[in-house]
């Protein structure tokens, strides 16, 4: 027997070793360390360039000046705050409209191949034409205020809602659909009890993309339209025109913060809505 | 059965299932077994020939569990009754009974992703049971399960069959599963599927799990396997 058994070395380094390690404080440090170090590096470089610019430092004001001269100045902070509120309103209005139109559009297309063939080309065209080229016309038609800005927002945010919803509605498993058909379920029942719930994860993914785009739309509208309450885009273009460096940077940072906040909120909404059953909702 | 693209999947199949009969079909992959079930259930219409079904209470257990991932076990099991417009109370009662029958009590509030493959299959089985089916169609329901779970589900199925006396049409790749479960085994040839042999299974119901290890059982399994191999070539 033993002559047949191969000798198995039991010393030396293991071929496979699995050890559990929790994400302790060290894990968090590993996670957050590199990005923070990178940020520090950027700030240092920023100071250096800003100092080198000398008189031209309004092009890149030292980081602390963004706070001392803009965020901490009640007048500037007030302007930025009001502008943010206005931009958020336009973004939300545009987003809600885009969601409603997009979902209805996709549902219509999911009901019949003929409707899909008729309407899908327009969704693609909507995605292909540079909306910026249409913006002046939109101002021309709809005035230069809230409503026009909202329309720009809708146009930019619409496509991901249409395509994601359609993708979700059509992606329903064939045997699940047949399960419903065997019970003689109506189109409406199949839509409400099967297709829409199944499409929720992709609809929410679409919403997250559209929300970011709606914000872009709201800011773009500001650049073109001069009437109505100014949004953050109007402030940005005013500060640029007046060479107000610190104020300009403060406005840009606020817009960036708004974008991140929207992204986080919609990620969280998605998780709250479908995270329980959908494996990879993030 | 000829599909639009010219594929002929079934040819000259003549099959009857009566209440209290459990018929299994074995045959090589692609011969048209699923197609046969789809025709029997009305999901597909035969290009030639007829399918007569004398009941509307048809249970159909698909190859995969086809649960709705956003519904917990309880409301997945309630689904068919819900689609048939039964009252909340009625379907809750039915679901509770079916869940108990397949041994999933205590898991009512679990989501499909929290279940094992076998438990998902049992949920799917429970869902079909709420219909009180008179005709029960199974398309390789236990094909993806391990041997032990599979045998246990086979026993549960036999118990259900003894209790409810539905007509069963069961498709499987496993010859011993076919012999163990059924009152009749139908062997089909390769595509286009024809019936090449039919075996009556003499063992009485309810079946003792240990008959699987008897000589008679092995002999019948051998005969069916033989017919299957002949039909294939
Ligand atoms: N909708 C369809 N259109 C065209 N051909 C089809 C269609 N559905 C099935 N077929 C063909 O019919 C044949 C039988 O298919 P079926 O699914 O009934 O096989 P099966 O016996 O269930 O096989 P398996 O054991 O692998 O599940 C196959 O050759 C398949 O390609
Ligand atoms: Mg099949």
UniProtKB/TrEMBL annotation, chain A:
CDD domains: TM_PBP2. It is a multi-pass membrane protein. InterPro entries: MetI-like (IPR000515), MetI-like_sf (IPR035906). The chain crosses the membrane at residues 28-49, 83-107, 119-141, 147-169, 203-225, 248-269. Residues 84-270 form the ABC transmembrane type-1 domain. Keywords: Cell membrane, Membrane, Transmembrane, Transmembrane helix, Transport. It is found in: Cell membrane. The keyword Thylakoid does not apply. Belongs to the binding-protein-dependent transport system permease family. PANTHER family: ABC TRANSPORTER PERMEASE PROTEIN (PTHR30151:SF41), ALKANE SULFONATE ABC TRANSPORTER-RELATED, MEMBRANE SUBUNIT (PTHR30151). This is Nitrate ABC transporter permease. It comes from Naasia aerilata.
UniProtKB/TrEMBL annotation, chain B:
Keywords: ATP-binding, Nucleotide-binding, Transport. The keyword tRNA processing does not apply. SUPFAM superfamilies: P-loop containing nucleoside triphosphate hydrolases (SSF52540). GO terms for molecular function: ATP binding. The keyword Nucleotide-binding applies. InterPro entries: AAA+_ATPase, ABC_transporter-like_ATP-bd, ABC_transporter_ATP-bind, P-loop_NTPase. Residues 1-215 form the ABC transporter domain. This is ABC transporter ATP-binding protein. It comes from Naasia aerilata.
């Amino acid at each position: 027997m033993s002559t047949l058994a191969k000798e198995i070395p039991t010393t030396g380094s293991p071929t496979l070793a699995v050890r559990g390690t929790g994400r302790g404080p060290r894990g968090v440090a590993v996670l957050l360390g590199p990005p923070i170090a990178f940020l520090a590096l950027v700030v240092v470089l920023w100071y250096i360039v800003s100092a080198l610019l000398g008189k031209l430092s309004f092009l890149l004001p030292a980081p602390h000046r963004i706070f001392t001269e803009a965020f901490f100045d009640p007048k500037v902070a007030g302007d930025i705050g009001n502008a943010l509120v206005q931009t958020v309103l336009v973004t939300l209005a545009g987003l809600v409209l885009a969601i409603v139109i997009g979902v209805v559009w996709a549902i219509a297309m999911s009901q019949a191949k003929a409707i899909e063939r008729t309407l899908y080309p327009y969704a693609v065209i909507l995605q292909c034409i540079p909306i910026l080229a249409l913006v002046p016309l939109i101002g021309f038609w709809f005035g230069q205020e809230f409503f026009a800005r909202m329309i720009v927002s809708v146009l930019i945010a619409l496509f991901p809602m249409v395509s994601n919803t359609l993708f979700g509605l059509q992606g329903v498993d064939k045997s699940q659909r047949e399960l419903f058909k065997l019970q003689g379920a109506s189109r409406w029942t199949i839509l409400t009890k099967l297709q829409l719930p199944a499409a929720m994860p992709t609809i929410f993914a679409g919403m997250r993309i559209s929300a970011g785009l709606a914000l872009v739309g709201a800011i773009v509208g500001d650049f073109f339209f001069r009437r109505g309450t100014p949004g953050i885009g109007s402030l940005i273009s005013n500060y640029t025109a007046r060479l107000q460096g610190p104020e300009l940077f403060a406005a840009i940072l606020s817009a960036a913060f708004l974008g991140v906040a929207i992204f986080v909120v919609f990620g969280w909404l998605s998780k709250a809505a479908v995270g329980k059953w959908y494996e990879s909702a993030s | 059965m000829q599909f639009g693209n010219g594929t002929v999947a079934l040819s000259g199949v003549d099959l009857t299932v009566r209440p209290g009969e459990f018929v299994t079909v074995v045959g090589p992959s692609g011969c048209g077994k699923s197609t046969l079930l789809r025709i029997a259930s009305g999901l597909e219409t035969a290009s030639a020939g007829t399918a007569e079904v004398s009941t509307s209470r048809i249970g159909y257990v698909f190859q995969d569990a086809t649960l709705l991932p956003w519904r917990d076990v309880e409301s997945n099991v309630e689904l068919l009754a819900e689609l048939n417009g039964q009252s909340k109370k009625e379907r809750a009662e039915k679901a509770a009974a079916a869940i108990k029958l397949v041994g999933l009590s205590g898991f009512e509030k679990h989501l499909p992703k929290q279940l094992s493959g076998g438990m998902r299959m049992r949920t799917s089985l429970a869902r079909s049971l709420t219909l009180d089916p008179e005709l029960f169609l199974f398309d390789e329901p236990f094909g993806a399960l391990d041997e032990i779970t599979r045998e246990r589900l086979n026993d549960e199925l036999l118990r259900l069959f003894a209790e409810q006396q539905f007509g069963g049409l069961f498709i499987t790749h496993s010859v011993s599963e076919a012999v163990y479960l059924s009152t009749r085994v139908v062997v089909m040839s390769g595509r286009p599927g024809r019936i090449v042999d039919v075996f009556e299974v003499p063992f009485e119901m309810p079946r003792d799990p240990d008959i699987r290890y008897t000589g008679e059982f092995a002999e019948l399994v051998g005969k069916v396997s033989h017919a299957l191999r002949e039909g294939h070539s």
